[in-house]
User: What shape does this take?
Amino acid sequence: MNPCLRSIVRTACVCNAEIYGIRRGYEGLLDEDFYPGQNNTNVMGLRCVSGFSKIGGTVLRSSRSARFQTPEGQQQAAEILKKHQFDALITIGGNGTLKGAIDLARVWGGQVIGIPGTIDNDLYGTDFTIGFATAVYTAVDAVDKLRDTAGSHELMFFVEVMGRHCGDIALSTAIASGAEIACLPEVQESPEQIVKKLKKIREVGKTSVIAIVAEGDESGGAFAMQKMLKAAGNPYECRAVVLGHVLRGGSPVPADRVLASELGNFAVSAIIQGESGKMAGRIRGELVLTPLEDCVVKHRTIDKDQLRLLQIVAS
Assistant: This one.
């Protein structure tokens, strides 16, 4: 998110627009908690975002706001935006953030543009979300290290990654790390089917195995999957590892920095052109705007070509 913020601020400055940073999301908006700007003001300038491209997480911080989810809270947020004479709001986040933007737009007359910032890559209206590439890189790096231990001790590792409703992190991690098994929310496989695969892998002489498990898989995660496969006759001795929130941190990889910069610039440009109620995304290399309602109601489908690729290279 930080490279995106850098791009937004610098594009706004070039366009002679004042930009304010709101800390802690909608909760911070209700508290009027603004990021310190330049010259003892809250207006962010060019130098305020120097070096942001390499910083992980978000300097604006994040939070969930129960207050904002009420009609009273949304009306209060609209009044605060009016009070400060803001013309437009750019929100960076996932499904909840975009839903909040839709709710706010119903009671506030300003322009609203969303930017997809979530490692899950689960938003309709863009091929990739900001943070996804970095999360996959972090997961693959961890799996590479676990592969050394798996090979040395002849073990099978169940590695759980984030992804409650979307298996993109698990799928990409499995392909990139050379995993033999991937358990995704979108693909239904019984323990018996997976054990059958594992027995074939064992028969050809493979002494160690990596299975990538999305947290939203029907099994209930890595530890549950380990127990289920043991009961079904898994021929390997197993260990389970949950990467969890490790995937949310770290310096963003170049692909994320470029995407974040493009979408931040595109969002400001869209506002200047009078757009509102849409999310900035990139599909097949083209920058596009998609209605916010579509982004939260419709769902991205997992790449069937990548699924077929995994089946081939993991066979």
Notes: The first helix runs from residue 2 to 14.
